Amino acid sequence: MSTLEPAAQPKPFKLWLSQLQMKHGRKLMIALPYIWLILLFLLPFLIVFKISLAEMARAIPPYTELMEWADGQLSITLNLGNFLQLTDDPLYFDAYLQSLQVAAISTICCLLIGYPLAWAVAHSKPSTRNILLLLVILPSWTSFLIRVYAWMGILKNNGVLNNFLLWLGVIDQPLTILHTNLAVYIGIVYAYVPFMVLPIYTALIRIDYSLVEAALDLGARPLKTFFTVIVPLTKGGIIAGSMLVFIPAVGEFVIPELLGGPDSIMIGRVLWQEFFNNRDWPVASAVAIIMLLLLIVPIMWFHKHQQKSVGEHG
């Protein structure tokens, strides 16, 4: 006659872990994103803000400490001159202005190119849709730097584009495209258009096309139906794609540095020069803080729109 063996008892650690998940699982899940933001956003921001209030020094790191103990007393030195320097030198204002201009124009170009691409992918056959999505994402699998260098070979005076135009007889002499603002726009649009396509594609495949059919049945023309029905239904994807393009384009460094010329003074290049060429970390940190504050405006607007959209549909 066989005897039943007692069930194995869980180990103390596993038992404690399961009890912790049952009691505080939801709180832990909510806490994880906050911990991520604190470690990778708030803490670096506070460090950069601290450096922006320091003074440049010939030391490692090249800035003075804000708090020092001297003769048993704590002395705090805050230097706001770094922020005042940004208002005195027109270089910084021009760099901010040009960065916002380039980012805005590039975002509009990405929208004009990305919306038709997203529309074509969303309305393609299911068998070819995944292939088209793969073609949209595929360039992002290669090195960003290699792709920018490839555009240098395409846009230079004896590059692929000029040789092709000369062969067609469209031009008599090579066009100067490389190291101009036009090359910067081409590089940014090429690099960031997938970030515009994917959110719009997601919005397009969620549309209830019975609304489109109803508008057409009521006599609306296709063009009017597109602007009055489809575009409003994909507004969330348009705004999300625009934010994904505009925000990184403002601080872009590699593309203006390699494809742009001396007139392509964007804030990313200014940051690089202050940090590595001038080794003026306090001024560079002040430049970064102001740039971040400028970017908070569209981020807050996007967050407000998302809350409004959730409220309307929830």
Automatic annotation (TrEMBL):
<dbReference type="GO" id="GO:0055085">
    <property type="term" value="P:transmembrane transport"/>
</dbReference>
<keyword id="KW-0813">Transport</keyword>
<feature type="transmembrane region" description="Helical">
    <location>
        <begin position="226"/>
        <end position="250"/>
    </location>
</feature>
<comment type="similarity">
    <text>Belongs to the binding-protein-dependent transport system permease family. CysTW subfamily.</text>
</comment>
<keyword id="KW-1133">Transmembrane helix</keyword>
<dbReference type="InterPro" id="IPR000515">
    <property type="entry name" value="MetI-like"/>
</dbReference>
<feature type="transmembrane region" description="Helical">
    <location>
        <begin position="281"/>
        <end position="302"/>
    </location>
</feature>
<dbReference type="GO" id="GO:0005886">
    <property type="term" value="C:plasma membrane"/>
</dbReference>
<feature type="transmembrane region" description="Helical">
    <location>
        <begin position="100"/>
        <end position="119"/>
    </location>
</feature>
<feature type="transmembrane region" description="Helical">
    <location>
        <begin position="131"/>
        <end position="152"/>
    </location>
</feature>
<keyword id="KW-0997">Cell inner membrane</keyword>
<dbReference type="Pfam" id="PF00528">
    <property type="entry name" value="BPD_transp_1"/>
</dbReference>
<feature type="transmembrane region" description="Helical">
    <location>
        <begin position="28"/>
        <end position="49"/>
    </location>
</feature>
<keyword id="KW-1003">Cell membrane</keyword>
<feature type="transmembrane region" description="Helical">
    <location>
        <begin position="182"/>
        <end position="205"/>
    </location>
</feature>
<dbReference type="InterPro" id="IPR035906">
    <property type="entry name" value="MetI-like_sf"/>
</dbReference>
<feature type="domain" description="ABC transmembrane type-1">
    <location>
        <begin position="96"/>
        <end position="302"/>
    </location>
</feature>
<protein>
    <submittedName>
        <fullName>Putrescine ABC transporter membrane protein</fullName>
    </submittedName>
</protein>
<keyword id="KW-0472">Membrane</keyword>
<keyword id="KW-0812">Transmembrane</keyword>
